[in-house]
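Assess this:
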Amino acid sequence: MYKILFTYLFVFISLLGFCQKTESLSPVLEIPQSDTVYNQAVQVDTLQEMGGTVIDTTAADSIVAPVIEAPIDYNAEDSIIVSFDGQKVFLYNNSKVTYQQIELSAYFIELDLETKEVYAEGIQDSTGALVQKPIFKDGNEEFESKTLRYNFETEKGIITEVVTEQGDGFVHSQRTKKISKDAFILRKGKYTTCDADHPHFYLHLTKAKVISNNKIITGPAYMVLEDFPIYFPILPFGYFPNAPTYSSGILVPAYGEEQNRGFFLRDGGYYWAASEYFDLALQGDIYSKGSWASKLNTNYRKRYKFSGGMNLQYSVNVFGEKGREDYRRTPQFSVRWNHSQDAKANPNQTFSASVNLSSSGYEKLNSYSSREYLSTQKSSSVSFTKKFENTPFNMSVNLRHSQNSRDSTMSLSLPEMTFSMGKIYPFRKKNRSGAIKWYEKLGVNYSGNLRNSVTAKQSEILNQSFTRDWKNGIRHNIPIALPSFNLFNHVNFSPGFSYNEKWYFKKYDYTYNEGADYDNPSGVPSAVKVDTITGLNRVYDYSYSVSASTNIYGMFLPRNANSKVKGIRHKMSPSMSFSYRPDFGAERFGYWQKVMVDSTMQYFDVNAGGIYGGSPGRGASGSVSFSLNNNLEMKVLDTNDTTKTEGEQQTRKVKIIDNLSFGTSYNLIADSLNLSPISIRARTTVAGVSINMGGVLDPYMVNDDYQKIHKYVWNEKSGLAKLGRLTRANLSFGMNFRSKKGEEEAERNKGLVEEENILPGEYEDYVDFNIPWDFGFDYSFNYTGPTRAAPDGRFSQTIGVRGNVNLTEKWRISANTNYDIMAGEFAHTTFNVNRDLHCWQMSFSFVPFGFRKSYSFTINAKSSILKDLKIQKRQSHYDNF
């Protein structure tokens, strides 16, 4: 009996020494292979840190040891206790167990080596909150729970109060059974996209199976909103994909109702994740009153090579009832394609595409955003560029398209090719010594352009005759840079010579036939017959020029030494140029044909309507041009820093006039109307507001038909009218106000949205809740002088107002409108109200009048996976048709 007590006392004292916390290296806890005595007791070095490794052994049959495939590493901060038989290890405080790629951390962990099981739980702190809860990691999978029991061999376990992130959602469960490496089953669970510890909403899952990184399958489920259960409607079953990679599947349509087109299912279809290089989505819309649409969207990408996407849409909108006068059936189409080449693919050769082509009125009938609806211009470009390495030559080939949706006018350029040569210096020596000679500064550029284009209405564009309606030609431009020089070290002179040549493949011949009536273009009398002569037709012109420019500075210093204004500087930049161009209307050039029409000699351009313009103008030109730019700045004391004395204060610049410029020219050779209109432009900033203004003064009078005559205004008028006849004037300015609160964070969030594309959809839907308010307006005034059609001239004034205000941290109201002062009516106006509900959002949009008159009220979950979980009430603008 005493021997037994002595033995237990010896073992107990040994264990007390083992459980003391020390600072040292981690030991290796082994189960020996030769002595069965070690199955009953474990030898421990008490000088080592509380940690260890259990190593698997496969020795003789006499060894009683657990069979595990890899070492189990464990450690703890407070203490590690090993059971008397060596089969259980108890870890306390920041405990951690690692087995292969499985990692478990918690406050308390019990490791059973015999059953290959582990149990973990947290601990309550002084406030009663549970801390150091079990965190289980297996590869990329990670979750946190209240307690956990897990078997390394079967990969099964029981988990309580666990929260796992599955794709864009979270699964909460009071009790979960892990049945395999990737599968869980649970009862009375929650599925939500809310990341709060206590979610604001969730689907209550009576039972469910979760397959990590794949899918979630549920039995009957119902919605719970703010802890209030909504039993009807109940979902009999649910399927939530949560694969980390793209996968094929059905695209669930959105549903709704419109007064004109009826009930609808919109954007339903199928998504095919074809491969890692491209995908494909087929979608469609269907309406109960006959309208329908089909859509194809694909994206493609090859790493380090190229990427792009294409969207094709075809829609048929039906309004009214068949057989009635108001019945309309309007087929529409849209093609969008973007392609970009990776910069690393080929530095000397690129191919890109940006195509936006649609039938006229497509956005009016099919757009869902105000930005697309208000857009009236579209353009496309498919471009190929090549740089010839180690040469100054470059080449580009483009296919271009542009259209105006207001009048359905469309222009096509198929193709347009440009070949250019960078500036070269033909007289510069390769192995030069000494200073550069003046003639070595002579440089030559070249650019050649080939274009073939047509402009017509959309309905007529495909029926245009290539020989009659298409315009084509080749243009050559050879600017020669002559050496510049300084005069008196202050005036810079730059001479120049320019040569241009156009090659057309047809020209016109004019013949007068008295009494005839031909369908001629504008400007050609109906009695003149226009014949087309095909063949190469050279049209060239050239000009000489010399320009001079300098800067003149003026300074004003106040006499009062105590003045806050320390100086005013005026900078004037005058420039003058002279250019000469011969009379290309002379008969030797053959550009203008003389025809006697009704006893009157008239001149007709044989190259009228050329793709690069017609023939050079008749009459020689020797023009002297003059311009003057002014800049006025003031230097004042910076009194914002009140901590500095007057002698320590710094000065700052204040711009009085950013720019004030005048420009005109005088033709020395013309026989009348030699002086060109005087253009005036001004820009300044007042109290942080940028103001732009401008005008054009014509120095000549007009007759009763508003045609200019050779009489100077200053000889006919008095007062300010002597300055000239005002033909155009404009004034515009705008102001923006915003609070400073949250400004830096707002700019940072805006950058994330634009650069990293962290929000889905268009950026115009982004609402910034960091700025409490902002307000701005723009004013624009334009004036056009009297004409025959408008004897009193034309005036236009518009003002645009926009504003946003945060009533609270979560409430935001915004408005945007434009008002035509002269017409007395508003343009497109919108009011928007947004409410941030954490995992939900509420929005109300209202267009009170106009073609887009409508409203929309929506409460929906933010997550894209639950995009159909929403309450929506709307009146579509399509009901205004």
Q: What stands out?
A: Residues 852 and 877 are 5 Å apart (CA to CA). Residues 2-18 form the longest helix (17 residues).
